[in-house]
Specification:
The complex is a heterodimer of chains A (about 70) and B (about 250).
Chain A: E1 3-6, H1 16-20, E2 26-32, E3 38-42, H2 54-58, E4 64-68
Antiparallel strand pairs in A: 1-4, 2-3
Chain B: E1 2-5, H1 23-38, E2 44-48, H2 56-59, E3 63-66, H3 72-85, E4 91-97, H4 98-104, H5 106-114, E5 120-125, E6 128-129, E7 135-136, H6 164-169, E8 174-181, H7 185-204, E9 208-214, H8 218-221, H9 225-239, E10 243-247
Parallel strand pairs in B: 2-3, 2-4, 4-5, 5-9, 8-9
Antiparallel strand pairs in B: 6-7, 8-10
The chains are: A alpha+beta (about 70), B alpha/beta (about 250).
The complex binds thiamine diphosphate.
Thiamine diphosphate binds next to helix 4 of chain B.
Chain lengths: ~70, ~250
């Protein structure tokens, strides 16, 4: 099952990954990170993720550490 | 199966010191991916500069020299030539801000290009002096408000901005130069392609290769990271057109 790994300790809440995902599978989480803003989480109930890695390529802090197919 | 992993050339347990959404992180990641793909991690020497990228040696797992403000191309020249004299063909690249490359270090930069120095320069154009608080820089477009141009850049007082990549393109020693951006996924992949080309031209010994990267500075622009990317797409690419400005393999 395609999925991504997020290291919340590295996330600076820029939300560029939310913008980059073609299926809108990343959303703000309820947890706050090191900037005091909400970090992000991967949410794929309908199994739409294709492991295209657009989110990981767009993350300026390498907080998305792995994409799996 | 893993389709994406953290680049090997980024240090384990390192975390970038940049502001939220800053394109410096993206640019360094692309450079690391290119170093991985060309399999040159052990043969690469980075020359970092003053500016937000000053801690480059903390992020990239390659040998690194810190150059004084603006002198990265001069330091890289020495590094490249000293190794060549000993018969070592090292890949040497500089990673510089626009203030560093195109203002305080313009002499070093242009003359490295004119000499056809066999090095690669990466210039992060975020239209201001980011690290010191967003002052007007050589690439600040007309009208932009910065810490030292509170009424916007105007030609009477500040003069005009520099088109860095076009100036490098007319230097005879330049073998490859391009301007890229990072505001969407297509452009990110294109930026990586051009950075890779610049490194490959150096491997072939063709001369000075240069990539200017239009980058966001959300903190000093006082915009969100997403709005900063919108500004690059809608405004900056009109002032600083993207593209390959010189490629001797296609002439
Ligand atoms: C000779 C010298 N003059 C001034 C400075 C102060 N200084 C440090 S970083 C910097 C701005 C760098 O801006 P830029 O090259 O555009 O990189 P950015 O921070 O935007 O990535 C300045 C002026 C310095 N370190 N050395």
């Amino acid at each position: 099952m395609a999925h991504i790994e997020i290291n919340s300790n590295l996330c600076k809440s820029c939300y560029l990954c939310i913008n980059a995902c073609p299926f809108g599978l990343i959303k703000k989480s309820a947890e706050t990170g090191k900037t005091g803003e909400y970090t992000v989480e991967f949410y794929d109930k309908e199994k739409k993720c294709t492991a295209c890695a657009s989110c990981a390529m767009s993350c300026p802090d390498i907080a998305i550490t792995g994409v799996f197919k | 199966m893993q389709t994406y992993a953290k680049p090997k050339s980024i240090k384990e347990n390192s975390s970038f010191t940049f502001c939220s959404g800053c394109d410096h992180g993206l640019a360094i990641k692309l450079v690391a991916q290119v170093i991985d793909e060309l399999n040159i991690q052990r043969d690469t020497i980075a020359v970092s500069s003053s500016g937000c990228s000053v801690f480059l040696y903390d992020f990239l797992d390659v040998d690194c020299v810190e150059a004084p403000h603006g002198r990265a191309c001069a330091v890289a020249t020495g590094v490249k030539r000293a190794h060549r004299a000993k018969g070592n063909n090292k890949i040497v690249f500089t990673y510089q801000g626009d203030g560093d490359f195109a203002s305080i270090g313009l002499g070093e930069s242009i003359h490295s290009a004119l000499r056809g120095e066999n090095i690669t320069a990466i210039c992060i154009n975020n239209t201001n002096y980011g690290m010191t608080g967003g002052q007007l820089g050589p690439t600040t477009p007309m009208g932009q408000i910065t810490a030292t141009s509170p009424l916007g850049r105007n030609k009477e007082y500040h003069g005009f901005p520099i088109q860095t990549v076009q100036h490098i393109a007319i230097c005879e020693g330049t073998c490859f130069c391009a301007r890229v951006a990072l505001y969407d996924i297509k452009n990110i992949y294109n930026a990586k392609k051009q950075i890779k080309k610049a490194f490959e031209y150096q491997q072939k010994g063709l001369g000075f290769s240069f990539v200017e990267i239009l980058s966001s500075c959300p903190t000093n622009w006082k915009l969100s990271p997403i709005d900063s990317h919108k500004k690059i797409e809608e405004e900056l690419t009109k002032i600083y057109p993207l593209g390959v400005y010189k490629d001797i393999d296609h002439e």
